């Protein structure tokens, strides 16, 4: 019966320390240790998120009111576009619905209950669209 190796114990706080800010380059990325201006981690994470959305292949549309003070919004998620493409699509959808909206974390939020209209618009663009959340 073999035991799993124990992790090395850290003596004191010196082993837990990592550089977070440098007066030479400003804030540092915790992932790669580079200055945030030269960090490649954020770009890699954005590319990975876009690849995951493209791999899913299904655009989901749902009505939601949680966390918005009872106001209803229609959300569109899983769209295989980059940030600029999402902004352009959101502008088109807002104009078609005649209402406001925004893009947050890769999800388009359109103010009001426009799920049926959004399903038709997105299906017309050739995407596989599903209504989510009842």
From TrEMBL:
> What would you give as a GO molecular function for this chain, any one?
mRNA binding
- Kindly state a single biological-process term from the GO annotations of this entry: translation reinitiation
Which Gene3D superfamilies has this protein been placed in? SUI1-like domain
CDD domains listed in its UniProt record: YciH_like
Q: Which InterPro entries match?
A: DENR/SUI1_TIF, SUI1, SUI1_arc_bac, SUI1_dom_sf
| Alphabetic keyword roster | Initiation factor, Protein biosynthesis, Translation regulation
The record's listing under Pfam families reads: SUI1
* Domain named SUI1: residues: 60-126
The family note in this entry says: Belongs to the SUI1 family.
Q: NCBIfam families under this entry? A: PRK06824.1 (NF005297)
By what name is this protein known? Translation initiation factor Sui1
The protein's organism comes out as Ideonella livida
């Amino acid at each position: 019966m073999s035991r799993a190796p124990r992790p090395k114990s850290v003596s004191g706080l010196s082993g837990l320390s990592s550089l977070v800010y440098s007066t030479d380059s400003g804030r540092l990325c915790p992932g790669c240790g580079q200055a945030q201006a030269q960090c490649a981690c954020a770009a890699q994470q954005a590319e990975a998120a876009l690849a995951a959305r493209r791999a899913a292949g299904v655009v989901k549309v749902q009505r939601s009111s949680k966390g918005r003070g009872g106001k209803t919004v229609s959300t569109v998620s899983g769209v295989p576009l980059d940030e600029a493409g999402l902004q352009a699509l959101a502008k088109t959808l807002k104009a078609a619905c005649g209402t406001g909206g925004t893009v947050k974390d890769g999800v388009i939020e359109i103010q009001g209950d426009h799920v049926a209209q959004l399903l038709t618009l997105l299906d017309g663009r050739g995407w596989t669209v599903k209504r989510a959340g009842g």
